[in-house]
Amino acid sequence: MKARSKHTPLSRERILSTALSILDREGLEAISMRRVGDELGVEAMSLYNHVANKAAMLDGIFETILRELPAPARSSSWRSALRKRARELRQVLRAHPHALPIFATRPAVTPASLAHVESVLEVLRRAGFSPRRALGALQVLAAYVVGHTIATRSPRKPDEDARPAYERLSEEHFPRVREAARVLANYDETKEFELGLEAMLTGLEAARRGHSSDMEG
């Protein structure tokens, strides 16, 4: 039997904090009830009194990361509110790149996570979005933030990293790729993120006013 931990008594918050710490250091593959129990100095069975299973632990990690978001602040418009939230979510996700697969594949489940969903839906509904369009706006915004962060921040193992030799391409057959490759040396991914974000907000504004293709069908 393992010695009982002499630190803070076991709790859901402590278990999830430990799981997040392991994930940040070692990656998602390292997360298991046994591994977290070992880190805490307790038997894995002890964790089940606070976290039902591994799925609940992943949902809890999702929640724990979202707790790092600032409290929603009053904004002059729905666009500024969503712009601010998208930037904040991107910053939090960039701080936990190993957690990106969780956000790409799992919905918000716990009440604490759903509170963030509720706050964004409330902003959109107050702005005049229908329930269906509000949900669509939330979904595409979250997908964009998570997807862009995966593309620019997702950890890669050395043997998985791709290093295209653009300079070896034929200028005759790939003139635009060669041109773009020269830009990459000084490329600003944050400006790219902002460009996509503004384009999305403009599209959502059109949808809100009913000028876009029908999202209600």
From TrEMBL:
Keywords: DNA-binding, Repressor, Transcription, Transcription regulation. Pfam families: TetR_C_1 (PF02909), TetR_N (PF00440). Residues 9-69 form the HTH tetR-type domain. Coiled coil: none annotated. Residues 32-51 bind DNA. PANTHER family: HTH-TYPE TRANSCRIPTIONAL REGULATOR RUTR (PTHR30055), TRANSCRIPTIONAL REGULATORY PROTEIN (PTHR30055:SF151). TetR is the repressor of the tetracycline resistance element; its N-terminal region forms a helix-turn-helix structure and binds DNA. Binding of tetracycline to TetR reduces the repressor affinity for the tetracycline resistance gene (tetA) promoter operator sites. This is TetR/AcrR family transcriptional regulator C-terminal domain-containing protein. The lineage of its organism: Bacteria, Pseudomonadati, Myxococcota, Myxococcia, Myxococcales.
